[in-house]
Design goal:
The protein is α/β, with parallel strands linked by helices. The chain has 2 domains: 3-7 and 20-104; 119-403, TIM Barrel, CATH 3.20.20.70. It contains 13 helices and 17 strands. The chain has helices at residues 53-60, 75-83, 142-145, 152-161, 179-189, 209-214, 228-234, 248-262, 279-292, 307-310, 319-334, 382-393, 396-403, and strands at 22-25, 30-34, 37-42, 47-52, 68-69, 87-90, 103-104, 119-123, 167-171, 194-199, 218-222, 266-272, 296-301, 340-344, 355-356, 362-365, 372-375. The strands form 3 sheets. A 10-stranded mixed sheet has the order 14-13-12-11-10-9-8-15-16-17, with helices on both faces. The structure holds iron/sulfur cluster. Residues 128, 130-132, 135, 137, 172-174, 200, 235 line the site of iron/sulfur cluster. Iron/sulfur cluster binds at residues 128, 130-132, 135, 137, 172-174, 200, 235. Residues 114-340 form the Radical SAM core domain. It comes from Paractinoplanes brasiliensis. Keywords: Iron, Iron-sulfur, Metal-binding, S-adenosyl-L-methionine. InterPro entries: Aldolase_TIM, Radical_SAM_PqqE_MftC-like, rSAM, rSAM_sf.
Length: 426
């Protein structure tokens, strides 16, 4: 039985069923028209939604700024989109947690196909103060470190600007290992994309807070366990880069606390390996995140790429992990806990993500997991070439599934639990 059957439908708005409803687009929303309708990205929640044409046309009647009257025929759709954070209503509709596939409307074929990237991950630097046991990007760091120079970030920015993605991720390597590059990249990406900062928290996270607030960026901290010893064994420090005694667990928690207190939208991502995949450990971590005020949790099944491909023993879990995570989501939904959960199963399609290396090359994991394809992006017709490479080398169905929560099949509608409000720095 699908758990959906036992869940209530979305709650109504505060105004009652007959009160007139007005609505506006959420101030920071990103929208892109697609052949099936549109894709919306909600930066505060780091959450994509695919909307069918009906939802898309209800949304098209809204604008940012002044709220407009909602037609009775659109009322239910607009309410659902307000619960998802895509628009805001008068009277207000609270945002609610979303646990399943991120589809609003009718998608009889499941996750829809896309022709352009949703997300591009951009290396800030090849340096990192950690040596995570499963590091996906290990092969894009070690051999780049010695030659890294200050011109590289210009090339990363150029290639990112040519990439028609909705979201640009400032990643690495650890962005905090090169805060100057991180600020430049963040500002450059924000010109035409929503921005996410991926960080371990090891470094001076506080120095990036003003830039994050200014650009309405979302920050995603990496944390693998509620237990410092387990986390720090999976994510040990590089003693050549940070003082002995530095704990990746402690730095991530400090970062989460600072982001929450500063009103910077933040989430946590966890790489699920054989060492942290038991239900009790994941439940403990979820409860710790809830207590810390985290509203979004992304769980990634470890991908046999980078370091995890070289030393897979004791790390890889495959589809057993999907079953455990599906149960975790079902448990979270049945308790109506206020946290969005996204599960990725990129181990099934390793070539689902788009990376730009620290040198500004396109880097795409090979289908069989054996290393990354490295491609230069020339200056002439860069966007067209890049799109061609994306369609040729990236598993576009896997890409859409990764960001639209396609691993899960539960709760195809939406929402159950009210999310705590956050202050967005607009
Ligand atoms: S923090 Fe990220 S880039 Fe650094 S070692 Fe860990 S997984 Fe790799």
């Amino acid at each position: 039985m699908l758990v959906t059957e036992s869940l209530p439908t979305a709650a109504g708005t505060g105004g009652g069923i007959d009160a007139p409803l007005r609505a506006r687009l959420a101030a920071t929303i990103r929208l892109r028209t697609e052949s099936f309708g549109s894709i919306a990205y909600v930066p505060e929640r780091d959450h994509f939604y695919a909307l069918d044409r009906e939802y898309g046309s209800a949304l098209q009647r809204l604008a940012t700024g002044e709220a407009r009257p909602v037609r009775p025929a659109h009322r239910e759709m607009v309410t659902a989109m307000a619960e998802a954070g895509i628009c805001e209503t008068e009277p207000p509709t609270p945002q609610r947690a979303f646990y399943g596939r991120s589809l609003l409307g009718a998608f009889p074929g499941g996750i829809p196909s896309i022709k352009a990237p949703m997300v591009v991950n951009c290396f800030t630097t090849a340096q990192c103060p950690l040596r995570c046991t499963y590091c996906h990007a290990d092969d894009l760091m070690k051999s780049y470190r010695e030659d890294e120079n200050s011109d590289w970030i210009d090339e990363v920015i150029r290639v990112a600007a040519a990439t028609p993605a909705m979201v640009g991720v400032v990643t690495g390597g650890e962005p905090l290992a090169s805060p100057g590059n991180a600020k430049r990249l963040l500002t450059a990406l924000a010109r035409d994309k929503a921005v996410v900062l991926d960080t371990s928290g090891v470094g001076d996270f506080g120095s990036l807070v003003p830039a994050l607030r200014h650009n309405n960026a979302h920050v995603r901290f990496s944390l693998d366990s509620a237990h410092p010893s387990i986390n720090d064994r999976l994510r040990p420090i590089n003693r050549r880069q940070v003082p002995l005694g530095t704990s990746s667990f402690r730095k991530a928690i400090e970062g989460v606390r600072l982001a929450v207190s500063e009103g910077v939208a933040c989430s946590v991502q966890t790489v699920v390996t054989a060492r942290n995949s038991d239900s009790a450990s994941l439940t403990e971590l979820r409860d710790m995140l809830l207590e810390a005020g985290v509203r979004t949790w992304a769980l990634h099944i470890v991908v046999p790429a980078g370091k995890a491909a070289q030393r897979p023993k004791g790390l890889l879990i495959g589809d057993d992990g999907v079953a455990t995570l599906t149960r975790l989501v079902a448990d979270t939904a049945s308790q109506r806990l206020p946290i969005d959960i996204r599960v990725t199963s990129t181990h099934r399609q390793p070539n689902s993500t788009l990376l730009i290396s620290a040198k500004g090359e396109l880097a795409i994991q090979r289908r069989d997991g054996a290393g990354k394809k490295i491609l230069r992006v020339g200056r002439v017709m860069a966007r067209r070439r890049l799109l061609r490479q994306f369609r040729r080398h990236v598993d576009t169905a896997g890409h859409a599934s990764r960001y639209l929560n396609g691993t899960l099949d539960l709760y195809p509608k939406y929402v159950t639990a009210g999310l705590p409000a956050i202050t967005v720095a607009v």
